[in-house]
Amino acid sequence: MAVKVLVPTALQKFTNNQADLECSASNISGLLDSLEESCPGIKARLCDEEGNLRRFLNFYVNSEDIRFLEGAETALKDGDEVSIVPAVAGG
Fold it and tell me: Quick check: 88 pLDDT over 90?
């Protein structure tokens, strides 16, 4: 199943400067493994040392925040679009 992944500029050095990729995975956790296979080193930027998604990154599946879905176990289906969005804070 093909899932489109939108990669933020800061992480595109791991994707050969590609802003979007196609991966196969049944959930977000599997997508991270698939990304690591095709883009070595990217998973360490997306996950902490314990394998949890980093808090300063937001993941969306078809514009739905995965924090309000199933988190890393959010199911993916053919044609879904996953956006990785760095959190922005200011004061």
Answer: no
> Strand 20-23 vs strand 57-61: parallel, antiparallel, or unpaired?
unpaired
| CA 11/CA 17 separation, integer angstroms | 8
Q: Is the pTM of this model over 0.85?
A: yes
The tokens for 35 are 């990304």
**3-class DSSP state for residue 23?**
strand
Q: Helix-strand-coil percent breakdown of the chain, rounded to 5? A: 30, 25, 40
For residues 76 and 91, give the distance between their C-alpha atoms in angstroms, rounded to a whole number. Answer: 35
What whole-number distance in Å separates Cα of residue 9 and Cα of residue 70?
26
Sheet containing 64-65: which strands, arranged edge to edge? 20-23, 3-6, 81-86, 57-61, 64-65
Q: What is the pLDDT of residues 37-62, one digit of tens each?
A: 999 999 999 999 999 999 999 999 99
